[in-house]
Specification:
584 residues; mainly alpha; two-stranded parallel ribbon; 4 strands
């Protein structure tokens, strides 16, 4: 007989929700007021959550601690695995000396810090979110900006702020696919609704980043570049989400905005070059200082990453890798041992997809890059050991954060808070993004947030006479704003930006921006629900799946892997042959 989650354990929904919010308040208090280190704040929140689950929600002790353990394991794999692989890839470029060339090549495009942030944090980060997601974009882009001698706090903070608008379409559209499965709405309709909301934020995000860095006056100096970056991204995001589906918006918009901005900068330059006031030295570049081959070699880890990540995102490849390398089992003692308030048992299946995981794709990219950047595999092993030592505290932080997320979900605390917000009646569309924001803050994942609240969003909207696609899409859109302050994201960014122990400062850096953007989004969604309803896409009755990359499903996954391996082999061979000719 499963234990049933109590929806209102104190027989007063408001009071129950307030008590359930105590662990969230603990995180805010620890990071903002007490300035506690990230792993300590996460452990405190987790401990308080266990106490509330046991004493208030009457959760059995065995289930509570199994839930915490399940969260910790999931925190290590796949989340920590992504961070480890991403930082390992970056460390290889530094250890080989190739990152110096990357810095010079980036400076050859522009030495202006404002423009570099748009290229890397916004556009390249969006591309990585669309292909990998789950922490990889922030880990890689933050490490790159710090390597470019950005101020570490600004670098990581900017990457967290930039990693908002792409999140709803992240990991080849997985959050929208889950929202569709849970709510019953068609993927394409949700994609279209989000694609008519987020492009507004996409247009403004580069401006927001630059104002955050340099102030409004200095941002006006690069307004043409801001409009090209944000405008191209917004247009491509709108077109792909409305006409191609949820799989490609981040990938196409990310690459498209990089190309548009790089081409634009060949014909336009800012009148003044802006840098941080506390920079030790200004990076100067001599024309033709490095050959094309040297620049391609230096960027090869990230080029290989792009190719492999794209391959890993293909459905036939995922299916093949899961068939060959995935262990899936019911969590002993936890699977179907908990039921929601309606008596439906909750499945707890652990998927150890060690081949198809995004972290494995990044790791293979690093392995392929080792000979290209001029290192031996013995040196690569040393670099991996150094990476593990570097990330020991972030790993503890991430595992404790996921333990906290799992216990509040399994005990029913999250559902109580969600139901309280659903009782706001006609004002619910305003609070719909807040529900998504809260879900991502707790779980660190827009996918998990939609799994939690998409059905609640659908049912509540139907009851108050609002098109349900508005609130279901708002759950995904609101979640993107919660991503920048999620303890999981903060821990990942701090690890990549070499700010371990300074998570509280990073949290304070991003929290106000999260609230500002969330309020803006709440007003947009409220207007969509009642004022400009013409923007709502019509219902789609067909059941065809749109949320996959447009590839021939008849082509087996192993064929794509072989083709990718051939491309990589040819690439490495060309690099090595060109190196020999250059040396000769």
């Amino acid at each position: 007989m499963p234990w049933i989650q109590p929806l209102d354990p104190l027989h007063n929904l408001t009071l129950s929700a307030l008590v359930g919010m105590i662990p969230v308040f603990i995180i805010f208090w620890a990071l903002i007021i007490k300035k506690t280190k990230g792993y300590k704040a996460s452990l405190m929140a987790c401990a308080v959550s266990i106490v509330i689950a046991l004493l208030v929600y009457r959760m059995p002790v065995k289930l509570a601690f199994l839930s915490v353990a399940n969260g910790a394991v999931y925190g290590f794999f796949p989340i920590c695995w992504i961070v480890i692989s991403s930082v390992f890839l970056f460390n290889l470029t530094v250890k080989s000396g190739q990152f110096e060339i990357i810095k010079h090549s980036m400076a050859a495009i522009t030495t202006d810090r404002r423009l570099q942030a748009m290229l890397i944090a916004f556009s390249f980060g969006a591309f990585l979110e669309g292909t990998a997601g789950f922490g990889a974009p922030v880990a890689i882009t933050a490490a790159m900006l710090v390597g470019l001698e950005f101020d570490a706090m600004y670098a990581t903070g900017l990457c967290l702020v930039a990693n908002t608008v792409p999140v709803a379409f992240g990991s080849v559209g997985i959050p929208i696919a889950v929202a569709s499965q849970v709510s019953g709405l068609h993927e394409m309709q949700i994609s279209q609704m989000i694609g008519r909301t987020l492009p507004i934020l996409s247009l403004l995000t580069p401006l927001y980043l630059v104002v955050l860095m340099s102030g409004f006056k200095k941002s006006m100096e690069v307004l043409p570049a801001i409009l090209v970056s944000g405008g191209s991204f917004a247009v491509l995001q709108f077109l792909t989400s409305n006409f191609l589906g949820p799989a490609l918006p981040d990938i196409i918009a990310g690459i498209g905005s990089i190309v548009c901005l790089v081409v634009f900068l060949r014909f336009w330059k800012p009148k003044t070059i802006w840098r941080f006031a506390n920079e030790k030295s200004h990076l100067t570049v001599v024309k033709d200082d490095y050959s094309i081959n040297q620049i391609v070699t230096a960027w090869s880890p990230f080029l290989l990453l792009t190719v492999i990540i794209l391959t890993w995102g293909l459905p036939p490849v995922k299916e093949f890798l899961n068939a060959k390398g995935q262990l899936q089992f019911a969590v002993p003692g936890l699977h179907n041992a908990i039921a929601d308030s309606k008596g439906v048992p909750l499945a707890h299946i652990f998927k150890f997809n060690y081949l198809s995981a995004a972290g494995t794709a990044v790791f293979f990219s690093a392995l392929a890059a080792i000979p290209v950047v001029g290192l031996t595999y013995r040196q690569g092993i040393t670099a991996f050991g150094e990476t593990m030592k570097q990330l020991k505290f972030p790993i503890i932080t991430i595992m404790s954060v996921l333990s906290f997320a799992y216990i509040v979900n399994d005990s029913g605390i999250t559902t109580t808070i969600g139901v309280l917000l659903a009782h706001t009646g006609v004002f619910f569309p305003f609070f719909a993004p807040i529900l998504g924001w809260l879900g991502v803050f707790i779980t660190g994942s827009d996918t998990a947030s939609t799994a939690l609240f998409a059905k609640l969003q659908y049912v509540t909207a139907t009851k108050i006479g609002v098109a349900p696609v508005v609130t279901v899409a708002a759950n995904c859109s609101g979640g993107v704003v919660g991503k920048m302050i999620s303890p999981q994201s903060i821990a990942v960014a701090a690890a990549a930006g070499n700010l371990v122990g300074k998570e509280s400062a990073l949290f304070r850096f991003t929290i106000k921006h999260s609230f500002i953007i969330l309020l803006f989004l709440c007003l947009i969604v409220f207007g969509q629900a009642y004022w400009y309803t013409w923007i709502i896409p019509p219902p789609i009755s067909s059941t065809g799946i749109v949320g996959t990359l447009p590839v021939n499903p008849a082509t087996p996954g192993y064929v794509w892997l072989i083709l990718t391996a051939l491309v990589i082999a040819i690439f490495i061979a060309v690099i090595k042959l060109t190196d020999k000719k250059t040396s000769a």
